[in-house]
Amino acid sequence: MFERHVSVAAIALSALAMSCARETVSLEQGPREYVATDYETVLKRWTRSDDLIRVNKLDNVLSVTATYESWDFRWAYAIRYAEDYRLTVDQRKQLLERSLFESKEQHVFYAALYGSRHKWSDLKAEQAAWIVRLIDDRGNETAPSEIESIKRPGAIERTYFPYTNPWRRAYRIRFPSHRADGRPTISNGARWLGLRFAGAQGNQELVWQIRPEAEDEPADF
């Protein structure tokens, strides 16, 4: 009987470990060969979600889903957007160039939050319940350069970020790509980057594990 319980527990732990495993991402820049139908797969790759729960009260204090609008993500987004809106080749090129340029200047995250108290999910409040920081495993911690509140998410947000809903506040959170001294806010040698939400109620982190460049598959140009 004891061995049976141990076996069941081992299986449960194994399943939990597999469910917690996260897909790695690459910060490599360069051309991509995406088509519009690839968007959902790329969105999933760059999106993380987590809940902060106070165990003693079984209270879901904060639920966050965020997409890192990386170089890779922006390429897939531009292709999907251009297809949906029937942009010309020149219009698609201009859209892609503007978006990729921004990715070099800023780290941008689209985030949708739900809190047990609605006002606690207001990141722009004078005394916000949560502060947000961009972090990595090398100890870098960066405050946002801008938190843009998307007050009335429309067709674009609900289509391209389908976790957006009436019960969540939506934001674009921007961080500088480099510090005043020129150092990158995400270390070139970082093994992961993340968003940290911290406050009096607790803290949680959304983490993107970074795949070393040596493990990247060659692009099919």
3D structure, described in words:
The protein has 221 residues and is α+β, with helices and mostly antiparallel strands. It has one domain. It has helices spanning 2-20, 39-45, 71-84, 89-105, 155-160, and strands at 47-54, 59-68, 106-115, 131-136, 141-142, 146-150, 169-176, 192-199, 202-209. The chain has a five-stranded antiparallel beta sheet with strand order 1-2-3-7-6. Strands 5-4-8-9 form a four-stranded antiparallel beta sheet, with no helix packed on it. Helix 3 runs antiparallel to helix 4. The radius of gyration is 19 Å and the shape is globular.
Q: Tell me the Rg in angstroms.
A: 19 Å
Number of helices: 5
Shape: globular
Uncertain residue segments: 1-21, 214-221
Order of helices and strands: HHEEHHEEEEHEEE
Global mean pLDDT: 86
Task: Compute the number of structural domains.
Answer: 1
Alpha-carbon distance between the termini? 57 Å
Q: What structural category arises from helix and sheet content?
A: alpha+beta
Q: What portion of residues is helical?
A: 25-40%
Strand tally: 9
User: Which sheet architecture does the biggest sheet show?
Assistant: 5 strands, antiparallel
List the strand order in the largest sheet: 1-2-3-7-6
Which helices and strands occur, and which strands form pairs?
Elements: H1 2-20, H2 39-45, E1 47-54, E2 59-68, H3 71-84, H4 89-105, E3 106-115, E4 131-136, E5 141-142, E6 146-150, H5 155-160, E7 169-176, E8 192-199, E9 202-209
Antiparallel strand pairs: 1-2, 2-3, 3-7, 4-5, 4-8, 6-7, 8-9
What brief labels describe this structure?
alpha+beta; 5 helices; 9 strands; 29% strand
